[in-house]
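Researcher: Let's run the pair from yesterday's discussion. Sequence first, then tokens, for each.
Model: Starting with the first of the pair.
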Amino acid sequence: MFDLPDSWVWDFWLADDGERYHLFFLYASRALHDPDRRHLRASIGHAVSDDLVSWTRVADALVRADAPAFDETATWTGSVVRGDDGLWYLFYTGVRFEDGRNVQRLGYATSTDLMTWHRAPDNPVVESDPRWYELAGNSPWNEETRRDPWVFRDPDGDGWHLLVTARATEGESLTRGVVGHAVSPDLRSWRVLPPLSEPVENGFGQLEVMQVEEIDGRPVLLFVCLPPQASERRRAQYPRGAIWAAPADSLTGPYRIDEAYPLADDDLYVGRLLRRRDDGAWLFFAFRHMDADGELVGGVTDPMPVASQGDRLVVQRP
């Protein structure tokens, strides 16, 4: 398990450089006292491991930028990939308040070694397109939801896909969560496209921290949504569902959000899958979310095996 005694640790993502595993995570000082204040103090920390169990903290990856900047308030969740140019790319969410509203945009930083990161000069590179996505000015959430990028190579071509937490422009508020989409030929220039899912009656207000993988030949989309942000119908069926898996027709969708099923209750949050290098086994990680009193715990779990049972994934929790 990875934890910090002086800070809350929550959203995270993983990378494998072929020799070591890398854990990137959001953290904020416990000196804030109130864990709800952590979001606007978030920085991106970094740790490394040889075995996915024992982690060594190294220098932070990113902190918020000096104003004026799209990420002047906080740096939020992202993902890391290696480009065809040999550079590592860290895509992340930048937060800035505009007219009292939380506006989220996506940027990236690059590194030659995963240790020292430099922001791209052309940030931000992905913003909401009002043709398909809800903007801050017309959102009952008082924010412009454009966060948690998951970037992966096109399985059928030479380009790249980016999935992002987003909201549609129509529908009941707690069903508007969709899989936002953008594409790029080179990881630097991005074109925003329509979402890869639709709002559904038993859906979600938001699909946070997505990841898509193919497990035992079946594409599956992981995302998270706590019960208060899910539709009434979804809450009635799964009153404690928090980490979700949805089947997909392919890695690039469409994603069948109406068929989503829970992988874990709200004691865990942010489910991540990683394929272990030595044996190819798929492992599941999460951060410890709520204790029995409903208080934030924090810290990333040890890896847990996942298995297919019928057409579903099952996490084998200790």
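Model: Moving on to the second of the pair.
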Amino acid sequence: MARLRSDFWVSAYLRRCGVEGVEAVLRRRGSAEAGSIFVKVDHLDGTASLYGPAPQLFVTDAGERLFARVLHAVTPLDVEERVTRELRFDSDLWLVEVDDRAGRHFLDLAPEE
């Protein structure tokens, strides 16, 4: 099965957050077809987390997008610095920012390594 295009996935993700009553905005638009997607979750308490694509070993033929926690409960500045480093490596990435005090992200996570 083919993987869903990044632009379609992000559009659906933003709708899902809205349906759940969670504020989410697209901060950076990447490659429509295959850009990597990162999700920053601001916990609204001075901390934030960052989720990015899961390592390839967790990707199945089903084409689903799995995410891994890149940073957890760090300062928002730490997340921004990490995103800046990722942008140097992959200028086509997408960045979605979610604001939720409970830290909800609605992502399918790969098993912890």
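Researcher: Give me one sentence on the second I can quote.
Model: Residues 6-99 form a domain with the hypothetical protein tt1805 fold (CATH 3.40.1530.20).
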